[in-house]
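name: query_chain
kind: protein
chains: 1
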Amino acid sequence: MGDVLGYARVSTADQDVAGQSLRLTQAGAIKVFTDVRSGRSMDRPGLHALLDYARRGDTLAVVRLDRLGRSLAELLATVEMLRSRGIDLLSLEEKINTGSAAGELVFHVFGAIAHFERRLIAERTKDGIAAARARGKRPGRQPLDADRIAAALKLVQAGLSPTAAAKQVGLGRSTVYRELGRAGAERLPRPA
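structure:
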């Protein structure tokens, strides 16, 4: 039987991890790793430190699943990574423990729901594109204006930097560099 390692995360510095840390310690965590990071950020030094510290057979404990992942897909990927390393997940609020058969079943159900959701989104997108085409719309990126591309290339040939030429004709810098490459023109060094 391995150790229970706690992970507590709050989004902003004016929040406190003390409440989460206390609950994790009461649940048997021998050590609690913390992060003060938004759920949007995957750069979580505390979580990385926990994963470096954890051994096969340990359990990662969180107060709520949203402390570990922002979306169901992200959470499922994290649980799969933990499983591959032989680490179980325990969520106190949701009463899920992937070390038990019931907890593993719950995560399989979550995975099926996430797959179903992805399929629904794909079908809606496909239906939306078909409906737009039926109305005479052309979904997707619009073709580039050949006159603006030609003007940008002439400006570059006249000595203007690709970045300045792009800005002047209203194109993206990468578009001008790409078109320079296609035209066989010599690439100018990027300004420092």
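note: The CA atoms of residues 18 and 126 lie 47 Å apart.
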